[in-house]
Amino acid sequence: MKQKNIYIIDFDSTFTQVEALDELARISLKKHPDKEAIFKKIEDLTNLAMEGKLSFGESLAQRVKLLEASEDHLKQLITRLKKKVSKSFSRNAEFFKKHADQVLIVSGGFKEFITPVVSQYHIKKENIYANTFVTTGDGKIIDYDHSNPLSEEGGKVKLMQHLNLEGDLYGIGDGYSDFQLRESGMIKKFFAFTENISRESIVSRADHVTPSFDEFLYVNNLPRAISYPKNRILCLAIGDIPEESLALFKKDGLSIRHKTSFEDKYVKDVHMILLGKGEKMDPEKLKIALKLKTIGYLGNTLSKMDLQACTAMGIVVFEDPKNNPRNANFIPKRMLDFMNKGTTYLSVNFPNLQLPRIDASHRLIHVHHNVPGIMAQINTVFAKHNINIVGQFLMTNSLIGYAITDINAEYDKDLFKSLKKIEHTIKFRVLY
């Protein structure tokens, strides 16, 4: 009988983008005359513990003493934390709903603020393990329960030893206390979560570095909101590229390389290319860039690339021939809209299609030569695989057809193979 998988997830800087005690300090000490010095002290104590340079128990005790917090401050903190859930966790809420029995939140933080935040994601209260505060009658936080193993150095290991769970355990977190679970041999794999912060001392010892929760779900073959983690999408920026353009790609979670030229080592793996004004697209490199989905050009593509060859390969091209100053923002946004939603609006070589995202569905893109009968073949494949179509759209030009189909969340994996085998198919991909 197959062992049940259990997923042990950290809270601070993992499930949420921030360290909750640091945020609580900024709320509780808002009017304190020495607040900046105290904030710095608390942040330093947090980092020392997360990097394994100070015992967790000592760090926690010192931080709680510095807080001067109350239950009213906790209410403000909870409101703030609900808005600071890590983006990749937030978009995969459906995973937590379907795997509620397998997910544990294990944190050196405090239940008082963790439970209201993670409970929104269908995580069971009995699966939340954290510290608890001690308060006075008027609601002031004066201490915490020192008998809780999670308040001590190596607390997560001690807790897991006590729980003695059956199954294969996987840990995901950003700090030393998370790595200690791997070091103890109690978990099968430790995933260093780096979406919010990357600690070299932890990353260097992890079984796998996961820049997002999507990556964690992907490598473990678990259901997820997007089909392919954004951190695996390679975007090359070539030539004179404004920092504003790169910032947009970074914010979206893409893997970015800024180079002076299109180096051979990237040709086979590149998904997106942003070209600075005056740069040329080498026709020979274009031919073998089989994963390339879109090219953005910060200027006029005339004589700079073969648009017909791009179209024949199913590569969507965006340009701004008027050299408008806004193109540093405008072109990358068009490329991201295409990658995230399939939108080809204002491309120079593809039929223009602009669609809203449809929740609780998967969006499939099929690019094909514009010959009669392709849509009939596509829908025959869907019918054979008992697929429920939520929405379907087709736009064509003289050369190609661009079809987008939104299907329900349940599907046979062989469906994709069948769609790719349709004659005259140029490119097929799953957006989310």
UniProtKB/TrEMBL annotation:
Cofactor: Mg(2+)
Source domain of life: Bacteria
Any single GO BP term: L-serine biosynthetic process
A single GO cellular-component term on record: cytoplasm
GO molecular function: L-phosphoserine phosphatase activity; magnesium ion binding; NAD binding; oxidoreductase activity, acting on the CH-OH group of donors, NAD or NADP as acceptor
Alphabetized UniProt keyword annotations: Amino-acid biosynthesis, Hydrolase, Magnesium, Metal-binding, Serine biosynthesis
Pfam families from the UniProt entry: 2-Hacid_dh, ACT_AHAS_ss, HAD
CDD domains per record: ACT_3PGDH (cd04901)
E.C. designation(s): 1.1.1.399, 3.1.3.3
Pathway assigned to this chain's UniProt record: Amino-acid biosynthesis; L-serine biosynthesis; L-serine from 3-phospho-D-glycerate: step 3/3
Reaction(s) this enzyme catalyzes, per UniProt: O-phospho-L-serine + H2O = L-serine + phosphate; (R)-2-hydroxyglutarate + NAD(+) = 2-oxoglutarate + NADH + H(+); O-phospho-D-serine + H2O = D-serine + phosphate
Record domain ACT: where: 363-432
Signal peptide, first to last residue: none
InterPro entries documented for this protein: ACT-like_dom_sf (IPR045865), ACT_dom (IPR002912), AHAS_small-like_ACT (IPR054480), D-isomer_2_OHA_DH_cat_dom (IPR006139), HAD-like_SerB (IPR050582), HAD-like_sf (IPR036412), HAD_sf (IPR023214)
The protein's role, per its UniProt record: Catalyzes the reversible oxidation of 3-phospho-D-glycerate to 3-phosphonooxypyruvate, the first step of the phosphorylated L-serine biosynthesis pathway. Also catalyzes the reversible oxidation of 2-hydroxyglutarate to 2-oxoglutarate.
NCBIfam families recorded: HAD-SF-IB (TIGR01488)
Protein name per Swiss-Prot or TrEMBL: D-3-phosphoglycerate dehydrogenase
Taxonomic lineage of the native organism: Bacteria, Pseudomonadati, Bacteroidota, Sphingobacteriia, Sphingobacteriales
